[in-house]
Amino acid sequence: MSEIEIESKDLNLWYGTAQALKEITMAVPTKKVTAIIGPSGCGKSTFIRCINRMNDLIKDCRVTGELLFEGMNIYDRDVDVVTLRKKIGMVFQKPNPFPMSIYDNVAYGPRLHGVKEREELDRIVEVSLKAAALWDEVSEIPDRSALGLSGGQQQRLCIARTLAVEPNVVLFDEPCSALDPISTAKIEDLINNLKRDYTIVIVTHNMQQAARVSDYTAFFLLGEIIEFGKTKQIFEMPDKKSTEDYITGRFG
Ligand SMILES: Nc1ncnc2c1ncn2[C@@H]1O[C@H](COP(=O)(O)OP(=O)(O)OP(=O)(O)O)[C@@H](O)[C@H]1O
Ligand SMILES: [Mg+2]
Fold first, then answer.
1. Which of 8, 107, 184, 201, by CA, is between 20 and 30 Å from 64?
2. Percent of the chain with pLDDT strictly greater than 70
3. How far is the CA of 20 from the centre of ligand 2 (A)?
């Protein structure tokens, strides 16, 4: 396997008394696309939210085990969550641009992290919009409200906003489920290009999408990881019957 960006070791998570993740052990390879699949409620979103500590916001959520990134445990007390989220960005199911201009959406993160010069911001905005395959559609209208863009454009804007702070990892939680097939194809192409520079984890309910975009796939069931491996192997020769049943649509 390639170099490892994130390593989860015996990760457990509880919401109150309900255990949502059980002893999750898996390694996320650097600059590859890792898909997480599994039926609704199996813990996919919970797991990727652990990676940038989005679960911190949830009351009564408790985590044990280790989640290693850059030689540290993400859940160590002295980890600075703002810096962590700069390095590990996230794109959600529903596009959630800020109610401000296209330009300001992308410049938001860099400004927050102290970039002030207009030239530097212009450069970052252009590079990020190009990387998100949106530049050609918005380069003439940077001052227009982001809320006036189509859903697919909004999602690519959210991707540009995430890339603008130069993360190492981008987490996608069902990024296409609110989009039409053409916008979905654009995002899939984009994800394919992004893995040159970023480590990507994508949660998806769409088996074809997982097979198309990912290098590695993890199958989750009831909070446990059932199987993890190269996508080709998981889809063509899964070790476990439950993986095969899920992939072939026999349940889930
Ligand atoms: N904020 C929360 N508080 C309490 N329980 C939660 C919370 N979020 C999720 N859960 C529970 O944790 C379990 C895993 O949920 P999670 O959202 O991670 O599943 P998922 O695999 O992403 O599902 P889906 O495919 O429907 O998005 C479920 O039983 C869910 O009800
Ligand atoms: Mg989910």
1. 201
2. 98
3. 12
Is residue 1 scored above 60 in pLDDT? Answer: no
Beta partners for 73?
68
Residue found under tokens 């001052």: 143
CB atoms within 10 A of CB 48: 23
Residue of 13, 15, 246 with the most ligand 1 atoms within 8 Å of its CB, for mutation: 15
What pLDDT, on the 0 to 100 scale, is given for residue 252?
53
- What does the pLDDT look like over 174-212, one tens digit per residue? 999 988 999 999 999 999 999 999 999 999 999 999 999
Distance 163 CA to ligand 2 centre (A): 22
| C-alpha of residue 201 to centroid of ligand 2, in Å | 13
Write b or e for each residue in 6-29: b if 16 or more Cβ atoms lie within 10 A of its Cβ, otherwise e: bebeebebeeeeeebbbebebbbb
Q: In what order do the strands lie in the sheet with 33-37?
A: 88-91, 169-173, 199-203, 33-37, 216-221, 224-230
pLDDT at 250: 81
